[in-house]
Amino acid sequence: MNHSTARRLDRNSLTEFALLAVIAFGNFLLVARSRDTTPALILIAVALVILIASKNVRMVRVPLLVPLALFLVSGWLSIAVSYDTAASWKKFWLLCGGVALYLVIASLETQWTRAAVVWGLLLFCAGAALYFVTQHDFAREPAKLGIVNQIGLALHRLTPQFGLHVPHANVFAGILLLGLPFGIGASWDAIRRRAYLAAIASLLITLWITFGLAMTTSRGAMLSFGIVIFMGVLMWLALRLAKRAQLSPNVALAVLINFALAALILFFVIGGSAARALINTLLGSANGVPRSEIFQQSFHLGQDVSFTGIGLDTFALNYASYTLLIDVLFLPHAHNVYLQVWIEQGLLGIVAFAWWILAFYVWVWRGREGMSWLALAGIASVTLMLLHGVVDVLFYFSRVAPLMFIPFGLAVSVLNDSPAPQPILSSMRARLVMAGAFVTLIALSALFIFARRTELVAQWDANRGAARQAQIELPQYHFSDRILRIVRGQVNLDPAIELFEQALARDPNNRVANLRLGIIELDRGDFDAAIQHIETAHRADPTNRAAAKALGYAYVWTGKLDEAVKLLRAIDEAPIELQTAAGVWGQKKEPALAQNAVTVIERLKKK
Predict the structure, then answer these.
(1) CA-CA distance, 563 to 534, in Å (whole number)?
(2) Are the beta carbons of 596 and 602 closer than 8 angstroms?
(3) ∠ CA(340), CA(303), CA(578), 5° rounding?
(4) Within 10 A of 361 (CB to CB), how many other CB atoms are there?
(5) CB under 8 Å to 291, separation ≥6 — which residues?
(6) Do the beta carbons of residue 534 and residue 522 sit within 8 Å?
(7) Considering only 195-199, 257-261, 500-504, which range has the smallest mean pLDDT?
């Protein structure tokens, strides 16, 4: 290496270190939620300007730029339908900071700066593990395993308690799982290079992170780790067998994907109800509710606002108010990151999210010739995060959202230095087949939209009505003196009602418009109109919990007690809510309605 090359590398390293420092501090200010986000955004903007100026054309060629930009655009658009724009803006800036962090890391060219990112992540994870095992209250929130809980209680007694906020164990599990592959990879690389001091340091940190992860007893994290190891072994075997059979790696990948899909189908076909029960056991529960049930209920909320979403960071009150029909917050998120993105950012958001993920895996597969331990660690970290996201919403929901962009950036940074990417479709015939499949998909989608255009336009109106209703009602909510049934008698819901009626004029069976209108009428005391709308909604989707619950209450107030009992048996909170309602009707001098509630309570208790 000549002196001019060395000087250029040193200059690049210094520039990249400065970029990392600026972007990291800007994101730290965003995560810390300082009073004014302006300094954080200025720092992030300065980092991006320096990045563009120093990298020039290379920065424009950073992979995943288009889906990430679309993802941010969908987040920005969702703010327009949010009932709490302040909260939505805070989350939007966190996502912007994360994307900017990705751009800086993905553009790194020197090993020193990549190592700085890795060690920064490992030290952060080690600190998170230390904070969790010493500050988590294992007496109030015990671990799932007795021996782990005993260790946690002992550590809790032996360490000073600072009384600061301690996030849920699953959040820590996600953070530690993100860094674990880099710890394993760094340890292996240091041992391979015989850099024993670095090996000891990385091994100790990796073991500590592993201990912290074990202390969280996160079922989702452990299951994700096992799946990634299993998938990695299968991929290694498939590539070796393909090489022996003189087949291309693309063929090996296709065979592996088809094998996995066939095995999954056979699992559910042969396993039947036992397979579904096993899946439910693996998924576990949250707040005593099976995750499969939470997914179904969250999906129904997503259907209400399928096009636009409800706005960033507004899930909890929307879910409680319009899916569970309760007056208190119950769950902070949908426990599934894919549902959460769709619910918050709408159709454009989930399409951009899926494109981002697919584009990442296509990119790393094409760049496999330049694969190194760091790229493998990045891919493993991303995969662990996405698998864990099936059962929990971690980074997307958390204040540390920018962290989720780091493994993407590190993997892309390494593979940017690889030889020319390998084509996914190597033959002209394969490309023509793929092009034909794409054209067919577009044609079928256009045909579906044309055939269902009336229902889709009605759903668009219902979506707008649902978003407008939340914007009118939810800012007025306050427990317990201004719950929604009180608010609905005080605010002007005409803008939302007009949109619901517009939707029903196009599609009288639209579930969203019928249910939302029926619930408004129910709370305003127009029981006959409410029953008409809610019955239509219930027929359209008998699995919808909100429709079943609202219809059950409508039957109570109209004296159809047998029908009410059948519907309300599945609603755990019904006896308590009916007891409250009986007291309210008694105060309003409506003894018949109060007696209906008491009668249904007595019959529900006999189940």
Answers:
(1) 14
(2) no
(3) 95
(4) 13
(5) 280, 283, 284, 285, 335, 336, 391
(6) yes
(7) 257-261
pLDDT digits (tens, 9 = 90+) for 214-270: 999 999 999 999 999 999 888 888 888 888 888 878 778 877 888 888 888 888 888
- Pairwise CA distance, residues 20 & 109, whole Å: 12
Domain residue ranges of the chain, discontinuous segments joined by +: 1-107+289-424, 111-217, 220-287, 462-605
Contact predicate 523/485, CB 8 Å: yes
Which candidate, 404, 298, 568, places its Cα nearest to that of 31? 404
Quote the tokens at residue 409: 């950036």
Q: Give the DSSP letter of residue 321.
A: I
By CB atoms closer than 10 A (0-12, 13-18, 19+), residue 77 is middle
- Total Cβ atoms within 10 A of residue 191: 15
- Give tens-digit pLDDT for 538-583: 999 999 999 999 999 999 999 999 999 999 999 999 999 999 999 9
Pick the CATH number of 462-605 from 1.10.238.10, 1.10.472.20, 1.25.40.10, 3.40.309.10: 1.25.40.10
Residue 164 phi/psi, 5-degree rounding, is: -90, 170
Task: Name the 3-class secondary structure at 289.
Answer: strand
Say whether pLDDT at 596 is over 70.
yes
Q: Are 87 and 314 in contact, with CB atoms under 8 Å apart?
A: yes
Q: CA quadruple 404, 20, 67, 402: dihedral positive or negative?
A: positive
Q: How far apart are CA 283 and CA 304, in angstroms?
A: 25
Q: CA-to-CA distance for 512 and 31, rounded, in angstroms?
A: 36
CB 97 within 8 A of CB 4: no
Q: Give kind and range of the element (H or E) at residue 285.
A: strand 285-286
The amino acid sitting at 362 is V
